[in-house]
Amino acid sequence: MQRYWLYQxxxxxxxxxxxxxxxxxxxxxxxxxxxxxxxxxxxxxxxAEEVLRQWRSTAPEQAGPAALQLGPLSTAELLxxxxxxxxxxxxxxxxxxxxxxxxxxxxxxxTGFLPHNGTPLEAFLAxxxxxxLLLAASLLWLAGVVVLLLxxxxxxxxxxxxxxxxxxxxRQSLASIPRRAWPVLAxxxxxxxxxxxxxxxxxxxxxxxxxxVKSLVFWQWVLLGLLFLASLMPGLVLLVRWFxxxxxxxxxxxxxxSALRRSSQLITHRQGGGFWQLGETRxxxxxxxxxxxxxxxxxxxxxxxxxxxMLPQQGVEHFANVGLLxxxxxxxxxxxLMPLYTVATTLFYLDLRMRREGLDLELYANQxxxxxxx
Length: 374
Description:
Elements: E1 5-9, E2 12-17, H1 19-27, E3 36-39, E4 45-47, H2 48-58, H3 75-88, H4 90-111, H5 120-129, H6 131-163, H7 170-175, H8 181-199, H9 204-211, H10 218-241, H11 245-252, H12 257-267, H13 279-301, H14 303-310, H15 316-357, H16 359-373
Antiparallel strand pairs: 1-2, 1-3, 3-4
């Protein structure tokens, strides 16, 4: 008969837990070996170390690595898990990325046929003459943004379910989108408006400089520079703290301000470990690594244009072919980067929930319950 155990933490009872769950908690640093445990029903009080020693002696085969597939990760492990996940599910993720960026890329191709030469007035008059094409490209771009956001939500669902051992097909992931479509769009709109207001503070320093540019001395320019950097901080802080809104919407059913608050709660959770274990620090490191990867891929996509600029011109037709090749490469790069960022965001969200709420323990306990029921 399986025994269950309770323990006290900060005056509040925790549990009941099976010995397998206690093993996970011990190995993740959530349970001290000397922690006093009380058996449910029997009332026996014993140390966690003794409980786990007895359990290992009677069921050693259950303590294998299969029970440790999930758990809190270091920043390096999180990045490694992200790239490994993308490698294992490359085709599925890449197809998702292609579907997400299809309309936007097509609208960009259409804008390539619009006139761009001449003076600003001549270019404007030429655009007026081509208004049907301009309208079609604009509507396609707007529809493409909506599709991109919804596909990002579906990809978040796919990444989370697959990572947690419940693999989903592309069709199943697409089926998760309609019921969360309006919450996704409403939350992204609210987030964009609030971030726009926060980043609008950066116009303060340039406005002051433009008004007194002739009378400012060196130290005043330095102060204006510091003011400009300070005006960036509110927007950057909110951008980092609201980075997990999409997983909050797709995986927890939250939306609007509730999703923004949920993301901020997870990012700002403090569990010790110093500066490098802060949610903001770890997320910044992850984003920095992904930014470097993005820059390298984007530079590669513009290589045809760069080489064309260095070589003698071959005529309008040649330039159009180079532009088309650059558009195709840009589409492929975006189709690679969008899944990479989405997977990293989703895995970071799951990692924070495991650290803050013991999500891995909850999932493992549910798995044990299903196994006993079957």
